[in-house]
Amino acid sequence: MGMALVGGAAVSLVGTSLLPLDQEVGTHASAAGAVLGIGLMAAAVDPAGNIGWVRAGILYGFVVVAFEAGSYYVWHAQFHLGPIFFGLAFSLLLIATYPQRRQLIQSTTGKPAPVVDEKPATVEEEKAPATS
Questions:
Q1: Which end of the chain is more exposed for a tag (fewer CB within 10 A), N or C?
Q2: What does the DSSP assignment read for 29-42?
Q3: Centroid of chain to Cα 99
Q4: Which tens digits make up the pLDDT trace of 67-118?
C-alpha cells in the first residue's frame, strides 16, 4: 500500500504541474501522499512500533470513500470505484493482519490497552493457592 501511494503521488505530481492549485493554497498533495506512503512502508517493518502510521493507513480507506462520495454529490464529478476498492481493501487488510488488534483502538480512559497474556493458564496453576 505504501509503495502504491508513493507511486500515485509521483503520478499526481505530473498532473498538477500545469495548474498547481494545491501549492497556491499552501499545501502539496503529492508530498502528503508520499509522506503517507513512506510512513506506511516504515510501519510494515515494525507495525507495533509505528501504530500511528497503521491507524493512518486504516483511516485512509474511509477518507477516500468520503471524498469520492462528496465529490460525486457536491460537485457532480465522476465516481471512481478504483480508489474506493484500493482504500477499503487495504484498510481491512491492515485491521485483519495487525498483530495486536486491541491496541488499534485507543482507550477513552487515557490508560494504555491491557496486554493480554499470550500463554493460557493451566488447570494446575488456577487451583494452586498463592504462596507468599
A1: C
A2: HHHHHHHHHHHHHH
A3: 14
A4: 888 878 887 888 889 989 999 999 999 999 888 888 888 766 666 656 655 5
Q: What is the pTM of this model?
A: 0.63
Question: 64 and 36 in contact (C-beta within 8 Å)?
Answer: no
Query: What pLDDT, on the 0 to 100 scale, is given for residue 77?
Result: 80
**Dmax (CA) of the chain:** 76
**Set of cell numbers at residue 116:** 493480554
pLDDT at 57 over 70: yes
Distance CA 26, CA 22 (A): 7
Q: Report d(CA 43, CA 98) in Å as an integer.
A: 11
**Are 24 and 52 a contacting pair, CB within 8 Å?**
no
Q: Are 57 and 94 in contact (CB under 8 A)?
A: yes
C-alpha closest to that of 99 among 86, 120, 116: 116
Q: Give 27-32's long-range contacts (Cβ < 8 A, gap of 24+).
A: none
Nearest alpha carbon to residue 73 among 83, 63, 62, 65: 65
